[in-house]
Amino acid sequence: MRRLTCLLGMLLLVSSAGGQERLRLHGSNTIGEALAPAMVERWLRAEGYDQIQRREIAFEEIELIGRAGSSELVVEIHAHGSSTGFVDVAAGRADIAMSSRPVRASDRALSQAVAGLDRAEQEIVLAMDGLALIVHPSNPLRGLSKGQIRQIFSGQLSDWSQLSADMRGRIRVHARDDRSGTYDSFRAMVLGDADVLEGALRYESTEKLAQAVAADPLAIGFVGLSGVRGVRALEVSDGAQALAPSVENVAVEDYPLSRRLYLYAPEPRSPIADRFLRFAVSDQAQPLVESVGLVSQAIRRYQPRLRQDAPEEYHRLVKQAERLSLNLRFGTGMSVLDGKNVRDLDRLERFMQQPEQRGRSLILLGFSDANETLPIMALRISGDRADFVAQLLVQRGIDPARVRGLGGAAPVASNDNDLGRQRNRRVEVWLGQAAPGVASRITSRTASKAAP
Description:
CATH class of the largest domain: Alpha Beta
Largest sheet: 7 strands, mixed
Helix content: 25-40%
CATH superfamily of the largest domain: OmpA-like domain
Low-confidence stretches: 4-18, 437-452
Keywords: Membrane, Signal
Strand order of the largest sheet: 2-3-4-1-5-14-6
Distance between the termini: 62 Å
Protein name: Phosphate ABC transporter substrate-binding/OmpA family protein
Mean pLDDT: 88
Pfam families: OmpA (PF00691), PBP_like_2 (PF12849)
Number of strands: 19
Number of domains: 3
Number of helices: 16
Shape: globular
CATH architecture of the largest domain: 2-Layer Sandwich
């Protein structure tokens, strides 16, 4: 009888354990603070869990527990910085790494499990973000160049009077800590080989940093877009016109401090991790990105302020057109799109199927960086890139009305560094009024492909 009782107890324990699943997301505070919890809760409901509980475990550590009948799914979110996500996935302590920077070779060298995280199928772009340079609302300064930002945070500029005739006082610098992907992004895009000055106030939390800047008229700091609360964001320039960290400028990655937010999941991965990743990039989930102050990858139309330094042909081609919120970018001399851009083309296909786009046509404008080749060859390379995108769209049933290469004209960033040159190697996508024959060609092909 005693043996039978023990056996029944073991069976009950196994049965109870078998009803619980677990998913572990570790890494970026930018993602883990608000976006990941909101997305996990929506996903749990989509999975059929009608009872959802949130439990605080420790600082920047929570669990979301979904229950449906005897089934239970626990999603663990630890948001201690992007680097911690890669370390924990490599050690088997996490299933998905949340990161506000691209995976590095040093991350992939942690273990064999994460060696392939730079592959398109393991690197998922979840949302877009921009590093906003924030100051107290009373600060009269309106914008800074990347060079000036570097000088401020490395200590070469120490008083506000060196930047504005309307302000005096020692600059108080606030920065994220070394484990933060936000800091890694800032270091890569701004600091380079310089260090944050000794004595800068450092934070693990975006929210605490923003609160400190909001309370100090002499402060400056940097946060992701979701952290711009109670402060003012400055315009930033990098060898081109200064841009604000607006939704549109970040979405097309023309804003100098734009960045992508990632989910990384090694293969093979569990079915539950795969289901979450598919949900995270779906049209159902992307509106949540906007709700927490980040930039979704949903395509939107907008009317930008046309640049005065752009050539006359550029102005002629986009006259009465609207820009779409995606740019397609390329490596040097290459016609190869990354995983995000491939998914962007899928989004563009769905966008053009919408009734509101009926009778409209696409305009593709290709660009090269100024150092890529001779000016006459730059026109050819930029045209080849636009043609390549047009070919991919034709395969999806969409014929662009106009396709042009404009060489190294109208750079959006400095050509003095690799990151700036990469931003300049792009294809812009505009939406114009098509000629009747072109419009009908787009409509009929798209409609036939969309039919079941």
